[in-house]
User: Fold Substrate-binding domain-containing protein from Flavobacterium flavipallidum.
Amino acid sequence: MRKIFLALTVFFILVFGLFISCKQSDSKQDKETIIKGKVTILVDETVKPLIEDQIAVFESTYNAKITLVAKSEKELLQSFLKDTSGIVILSRPLDSTEIKFFERSKIKPRVTKFATDAIAFISNSKDTDTLVSLKDVVSFIKGNAVSKIKGLVFDNPNSSTVRYLTDLASVKDLPQKDVYSFKSNEEVVQFVAENQGMIGVIGVNWLLQPTVKIKDYLTNINVLNVEGLNKKSYFAPTQNNLAEGTYPLARDLFIINCQGTSGLGMGFASFLAGEIGQRIVLKSGMLPASIPGRKILIKSRI
Assistant:
């Protein structure tokens, strides 16, 4: 009887040990690395199409699952500081207050610039004037009467485009009169395509990579050429003008990683700044942070 008891005891010890070993093995397999695992990334809604393309290629290359959450800039920062996700893509770096917030948690934000974007002004195709002066836009935002601008249309009152232009005009808030805001860049395109006299303010990414929902509306809008402050020339938000620094509403894009570990966020940031990610930026019509190299094949005979 004693031998049977000892045999059963040994058996259960072995089974328990095997169970623990399997659990540890599964835990190691599920552990997030720079190219494997699951992560959520907060993304500025104005550049959503570009990041969707980047994620699709990254996931097809690595054993990774990235959940994209697109919001306005203010909403993103609120979620980011509440630790909804440790990774965010913004059209500006963190300010000193935000950096100190993470330093108190002993986390050093890793900031990677990966592209230069543009804010675009659009109008109805029936409006004959395709030029707009940034001086007039700033004057309008300050509340001064400008006959050429009947109204501005934004994607969201908390958007990065609103923050960019209010900073430019040195005001805290937009004027109450003749300013419209919706919930997305798609709604801005639709509204401007259906209404004359309005100037829409959107991320150029939505024009370069339109969704099915707005593709048909693009035939009914003009992309305006913009005259910078204290300038006398007008420039369109093209890749060439971004490269030459002549378009006055250019802005850099950053991926900011505050995971505090060497996780998938670090891997995705490296991907964005690497050759494949930069080629995706180049193909999108934006300006890559570093121009991908071109291989030239020289043949001795044709």
The two ends are 89 Å apart (CA to CA). The chain has two domains: 36-116+252-288, 117-250. Residues 36-116+252-288 form a domain with the D-Maltodextrin-Binding Protein; domain 2 fold (CATH 3.40.190.10).
